[in-house]
Amino acid sequence: MEIDPAIATTIVSSLKNVTQHEINFFNTDGVIIASTDTSRIGTTHAGAREAIATKQTNVVNSNHEYEGAKKGINMPVLFNDSVVAVVGVTGHPDDVKPLGGIVKKMTEILVRESLEQNLNFNRAMLMQNLINMLILPRHDAGLTAYLSSALNVDLDLPRQAIVGRMSYPLQKIPPRDKVQKILDSNFGADANNLFCITAQGFTLLVDASNGQNWEPTLNQCLNDLKTETGIQFTLGVGLPAPDADHYHLSYKEAHQTAEWHTFTSGKGIGNYEDLRIGLIVTSTPINQIRNFTNALLGSLSDMEIKEFHEAFNAYTAFNGSITHAAQSLYIHKNTLQNRLNKLAERTGYNPRDLNDYKTLSMAFIMNDYLDFISKKSNSDTAIDG
């Protein structure tokens, strides 16, 4: 196992701040890959090779004692009882020996932390790739099998997809590490739960084998996200899928639900079985939605659409009562009647006719949805990190 020179450079810099001596970091071939004395980087040190071979601290009493050496001490850095590097402190042995134990221990701690961070990062990347495969209608069976084997994931378990989205409009970008930590704390205890961070939130494939009610955990996750990042998230929950060949169906349901729930409420948890009209809208291709709204509202200006929509919503909210609807808008009832009449005249659909009303209602909903999609796509930013 080789240590990245960039990590080694950070370590020697940190150690020099503590010891006030020049620090050298050797790879397992005895080559200096990082040093606070940059002129020594790339040189070979016979004393370091001896420390690697014996797993013992090597003391250099003279600049001529070993090829390429200067006075000081060289200590093997152990990870899982194997030498992964050597750290050296330059100086008179009597001066630097007392520092040996501290330097060795600090180096091993820093190396372990760096390696663990790399392992966690690599695992997160493998998991992201696996989930990206599983949510596709057709995935590469060989690659999926390799990734699931590397991560020890059972793909025969039933799982339920949950899609998290940052609520629109987004005020700031949450740090990736905070989102990862919150997902770990809420779902990481069960190895059968799979999750990864995406550009606009996260994707979960939670264990559905025991019929667990995930709502309390999801609510806790939303609270943690709000508290730790200051951002409101929306969750869409798909139906359970029996195995890996069907996870993509649950994901599609969760994605549709998250999109619609972000549009309609901007917070909380939405379930696929509760979508109702949202199922129709989110299942309709955007170009067809655009064609439909253009056919009904395309001749209207943005100001007219806003005015007619406001009147239509008030008319709906008060179940067709012109008087109460007008009062809610602080206008005379004749003004409201004129607006509704003008809406019928301009579109050819009369809101007082039940069949026409349903068509207009869908047109206004879809127009709002198009506006939401357009504004969100123009302002989308990925999770930081």
Describe this structure in words.
By secondary structure, the chain is an alpha+beta fold. It is built from 14 helices and ten strands. The protein has helices at 5-19, 46-54, 93-96, 100-134, 141-151, 176-187, 215-229, 247-264, 277-283, 286-297, 302-317, 322-329, 333-347, 354-379, and strands at 23-26, 32-35, 58-60, 72-79, 82-90, 159-166, 194-198, 201-207, 233-241, 268-271. The protein has a five-stranded antiparallel β-sheet with strand order 2-1-5-4-3, with helices on both faces. Strands 7-8-6-9-10 form a five-stranded mixed β-sheet. Strand 9 (233-241), helix 8 and strand 10 form a beta-alpha-beta unit. Helix 8 (247-264) packs across helix 9 and helix 11 (302-317) crosses helix 12. It starts with a helix and ends in a 6-residue tail after the last helix.
- Overall geometric form: elongated
- Sheet-strand content, in percent, reads 15-25%
Look at the structure and give the mean pLDDT. Answer: 90
Structural class: alpha+beta
The main pleated sheet reads as: 5 strands, antiparallel
Q: With helices defined by DSSP (H or I, 4 residues minimum), what is the helix count? A: 14
Helix content: 40-55%
Order of helices and strands: HEEHEEEHHHEHEEHEHEHHHHHH
Main sheet strand line-up: 2-1-5-4-3
Q: What is the alpha-carbon Rg in Å?
A: 32 Å
Q: Give the tally of β-strands.
A: 10
- Unreliable residue stretches: none
What is the straight-line distance between the termini?
A: 26 Å
